[in-house]
Write a structure and sequence with these properties.
Elements: E1 8-9, E2 18-20, E3 32-35, E4 46-55, H1 60-74, E5 76-87, E6 92-104, E7 107-121, E8 127-138, H2 142-155, E9 157-158
Antiparallel strand pairs: 1-9, 2-3, 3-4, 4-8, 5-6, 6-7, 7-8
Organism: Aeromicrobium erythreum
Protein name: DUF1795 domain-containing protein
């Protein structure tokens, strides 16, 4: 399991989400994962958290583009549906929704990935901690589960805070 650049306390948005081992889900780059299994469902939505340290001068849009590239390796026709820059010059962020198609249960399905990239300066000032919160779900689930990603991100607190 990967490590985050800062220790976070996280709270799942509701009891339907179950903590899972990222490695068992084939997500070795994730530091945290949760699934929302539903009997008979085509796909169990995923919440993941990953991150690392980056150069403080690097544009946060680079992280967003890297996330798109990773998504494009997993789905067909990957594209950015929406991208909004946020934050401050010392702690920039970005939220984006990605779309693509993936073969699930024998047919192509529309998949969405909503991401929130949050950053924070480090003490030395030369690097920036980057944490990426991701929701992966079917397109028709995004309207219901998107707000849960927002709740999940809002629950994140540095340990001891």
């Amino acid at each position: 399991m990967a490590q985050l650049p800062i220790d976070l306390t996280l709270r799942l948005p509701d009891p339907g989400w179950l903590v899972a081992d990222p490695a068992e889900l084939g997500l070795p780059g994730a530091a945290f994962a949760a699934t929302r299994p539903e009997p008979g469902a085509v796909f169990a939505p995923l919440l993941t958290v990953s991150g690392g340290l980056r150069d403080a001068t690097e544009d946060v849009a680079v992280v967003a583009e890297e996330s798109l590239a990773v998504f494009a390796e997993q789905v067909a026709d990957a594209e950015v549906v929406d991208r909004v820059m946020s934050g401050t010059p010392t702690a920039p962020g970005v939220s984006q929704v990605l779309a693509g198609r993936a073969p699930l249960q024998g047919r192509q399905r529309e998949v969405r990935q909503a991401q929130v990239v949050a950053t924070a300066p480090t003490r030395d000032g030369d690097r920036r901690a980057v944490v990426v919160f991701t929701l992966t779900c079917l397109a028709e689930q995004l309207g219901t589960l998107g707000p849960q990603l927002q709740t999940f991100v809002a629950s994140a607190r540095p340990e001891g805070a």
